[in-house]
Amino acid sequence: MILFKKKSLSLILFSAFSLFLYAESLPHGYKDIMLGMSLEETKENLVKDPDFGYHGDRDVSLIPHSSKTLIETDAQRGFGSNFLTRCWFQFSFDELYIITININPEKIDYYSIFTKLTKKYGEPTSFSPQAATWTDGAVTMSLEKPLTLKYIDNKIFEQTQNYSNIQASPTEITQEMFLDEL
Hints:
The protein is α+β, with helices and mostly antiparallel strands. The chain has helices at residues 2-22, 39-48, 110-121, 154-162, 170-181, and strands spanning 29-30, 33-34, 60-62, 68-74, 84-92, 95-103, 126-127, 131-135, 139-144, 148-153. It has one domain (24-181). It is built from five helices and ten strands; from the N terminus they run H-E-E-H-E-E-E-E-H-E-E-E-E-H-H. The radius of gyration is 21 Å and the shape is globular. Keywords: Signal.
């Protein structure tokens, strides 16, 4: 009986390890749109792929008083994909760092995408009723409900979180001063 348990445990561990070895590394983008691309490179690739529904510079927004740019596409209008609805491409200092893709729930469901991603990339790093997230240090990919897929460049995202043009309010400053006195 003990020999059977040892063999069973060995088989389970080997299977889990094999799945881990054969899981693909996380993608750094979707189709030809990759994290880290410049605004111009991204626009050129969006023009080449009608699935995104990119309509040119009218889809590009500059965020006032910041080094950020946003491209928003509407894949449902025009010649876009039946599977995509809207997409957002966020840039910081001319570098693509977040890709957000809304997927049409009438064409495919959350579970089908989750199952495919799990087979391809292994079990999610974190899982909740709202989202499944895979991360490998460089990239975070999340599948969020109702049906959104996100790719995030972790390094650039952290830099944008650390860099802020917003000054602390007087209330925040006095609160911090009070806390420092404790």
